[in-house]
Amino acid sequence: MISEKELSDLRSEAYRLSSKEVVEKLKSDADNGLDKDKIKDRQEKFGKNQLQEKSGKSILSIILSQLNNPVIYLLTAAALIAFLFGDIPEAIVILVVLIVNTIIGFWMEYQAQKSMEAIKKMDKTEITVIRYGKETELDAEEIVPGDILKIDAGDLIPADARLLEANELQIDEAALTGESVPVNKSTEAIDTEKQVADRNNTIYKGTAVTAGTGKAVVFATAMHTEVGNISAMVQEQDKEETPLTTKLNQLTKNLIWVILAMAAAFFLFGWLTDKDLYQLVQTSIAWTIAAIPEGLPIVASIALARGMYRLSKQNVLVKKLSAVETLGETTVIFTDKTGTLTKNKLTVKNFSFPQKDDLKVNWKNEKPEVQDQENSNFQEIFKISVLANDANLEDEGKGNGDPLEIALLKFTKHLDEELYTENKKKERILHKPFDSDTMTMGVAFKSENGQIYVAAKGSSNAILDKSTHILENDEEKDFSKEQKEKWQQKNDELSEDGLRVLAFGFRKTENKPEDEDNFIEKLCFVGLIGFIDPPREEIASSIETCKKAGIKILMVTGDHPGTAKNVGKTVHLFSEDEENNDVTVHGKNLNDKDIQYEEIKDSYVFSRVAPGQKLQLIEIYKENGEIVAMTGDGVNDAPALKKADIGIAMGKRGTQVAQEVADVVLKDDSFDSIINAVAQGRIIFGNIRRFVVYQLSYHLSEILIIAIMSFSLFTLPILPLQLLFLNLLSDVFPALALGVGEGDKKVLDYPPKDPKEPVLKKKNWRQIISYGLIITASISGAYLYSHFILQQSESINNNIAFFSLAFAQFLHVFNLRDGDENMFNNQVTRNKFIWMALLLCITLVLIAYFVPVFADVLSFEKLSLQSWILIGISSIVPLIIIQLIKEIKKDF
């Protein structure tokens, strides 16, 4: 039997061994497969071929995690104390607030537990397997190491396997490696160490067969496959709290400690002076309620949800609320190349002909334009492109077949549909499909003059080797060795520029070739065609916008270094001056685990990058204080999407795995949508900062009013239940209206704020203290005037303080305009939600005053006209004072 140690060693070296050696080490049989005893033994030893799923939290544990919060502790304690002292209405209201917050948090976390389900769906497939001498269809879960697979076009590979046979076999590995075109596979052993993307004799779980047939022996199943390794990395990457969540939590904790200290001091002072215990408890509860912005989590969530809604209208699906704001803090975006920066659609870029300058193809609305179409080389290469082509175009313009061949058909059809159709109708008399060993494909036709026309295309090496002549100035001339070397050099130059290159040749003969397997020979070389996956039209301007906004864009791809660098240059990822530096890093140079940020900070393109290296790059940049966004579409991107501060998956071409673990999904796969999301994130943070200033400034006034009256008159100016009612109104509706404002349209004209910058800067704290003191002075003045001058009862004084504070808080929302905005025409006054919120809040307060049942619960009394005049003056004075100061001092 094969041991786990032997199998582990084989997984890392299978591609370097011959197929016969791999079969022998697996103790299998290439013709008959495994016998029943070996199958049973290996099923028991290695288990089913399925990916493990990390067990998610139970519903109970999710609920408990939501309750594990200092704010919840304080409010729960306040509710229990209210129950103990018989104040049932107050206790019930506090509990309602707790329940609402817990339900919101529970639902968000419960929805986040689906990330691994998508990977498991990859296991649901069947495959043809040879066992005990017979071919059988088998569920992929039943496959074991040593099984012999037979694969055909359309099959999904169920395990990692070493090829034993490969007949024109092509595998789409985009989901695993990021390679944009199908990979030609062979059976030859590889002498040198190679990365996954370059192991052409190996097939991998989760990839798909696009053409050809093959036979392979399985050497890795389940979590030991490359996809399994990625799945394990996804599970290992615990999602860290986003910057906004961390900052809001820290702010809340700081507020709690301050108010606990004040409440403890007051309680101790009152207890030492033999004051009424329940009044001491009530005042402490009032301070707790006054200090904690109960509506902050709800308002922040709704404000972010509003941002999510706006982005959904712009093809951006945000799955996690706080991801919107975190996008606004992004300083680095790691982006894939294929389909994000480029169109993921190979296109004919240029022609290289003998004794001619390269012909560039200009595309306008899917229509190609080419100069000098009359020369004989162009006419021949046009003909060969259509004839030596196994792809097909559908009516709606989509194609079936190899992407390079589809690109040739689209070019020829759109350039000259009549000539394209004429050539397409010709019947082949010989056909040799693409062969990964010879790297050529060809066909033969009988011309109208009776001649046989052989058309061939393939890699430059192969076509040049099979060419004896070259077409120059309408003449077929001898093709010298020196000329071939120059054309090979030309091919290398085009490849270094990021182009995929095909060479073309033809031969005219009087008779049909006798050797039908080797008729692609003695060709006349025509020229080269360079293909490119063109950048999206909007990319260059989007990247320029990012640079202006202080965001660095880095390309991370599994593609060829030359291709990646060329795309980066085309979209202006780096400047011409920077190009002289080492802007490209090959994945093999990232194998050193001790690589430092300083070594790569000036690089813009990372090519041939493996999934683990993406994690490494993200970790390096995050450790340097960057807020990292990562785009991706394949299975190979999933761990990095989860590790990044913000994972952005593609909606059109992205795998379900990538979409499930990402925070954001782009429904149109457009980089422009990322820019919109970043702008919205910055607007949201500005709005959140605005309503936090709004909330904390009047919460400060509540604390100060209670402190002044409690320590001077030893009376409670506003009751806990009144405070809770008022804060539920002010903390939610006006604050929410501020949170959903349109914001500053110039947010992308400035660099992102420092990721370490707190929610509130020193300027904001000065605003909070100043606003709070002004409101405190006005409301305290009204209370003291009623107490000493009007000599009204304590309950009336309480009502005057409550209503004065309520209307002052509602009007305070207008003080949150920017200092350089007009007093009467600004983003606050233009916000229709502000007016709706004020109308709602004032209406609810008046209902509570006039409806007896609510008035009794909130301890409201009938107030005289004199009292209402005092309330009106004291509530509008803070607005007038703050607005006048803003006119003088713009940053107030």
From TrEMBL:
GO biological process: intracellular potassium ion homeostasis; intracellular sodium ion homeostasis; potassium ion import across plasma membrane; proton transmembrane transport; sodium ion export across plasma membrane
SUPFAM superfamilies with a match to the protein in the record: Calcium ATPase, transduction domain A, Calcium ATPase, transmembrane domain M, HAD-like, Metal cation-transporting ATPase, ATP-binding domain N
Compartmental location: Cell membrane
Domain spans labelled Cation-transporting P-type ATPase N-terminal: 13-87
Domain of life where this protein originates: Bacteria
Coiled coil residues, start to end: none
One Pfam family linked to the record: Cation_ATPase_C
Molecular-function annotations in GO: ATP binding; ATP hydrolysis activity; P-type sodium:potassium-exchanging transporter activity
Membrane topology: Multi-pass membrane protein
Transmembrane segments: 67-85, 91-110, 255-273, 285-305, 768-790, 834-855, 867-885
UniProt keyword terms in alphabetical order: ATP-binding, Cell membrane, Magnesium, Membrane, Nucleotide-binding, Phosphoprotein, Translocase, Transmembrane, Transmembrane helix
Name of the protein: ATPase P
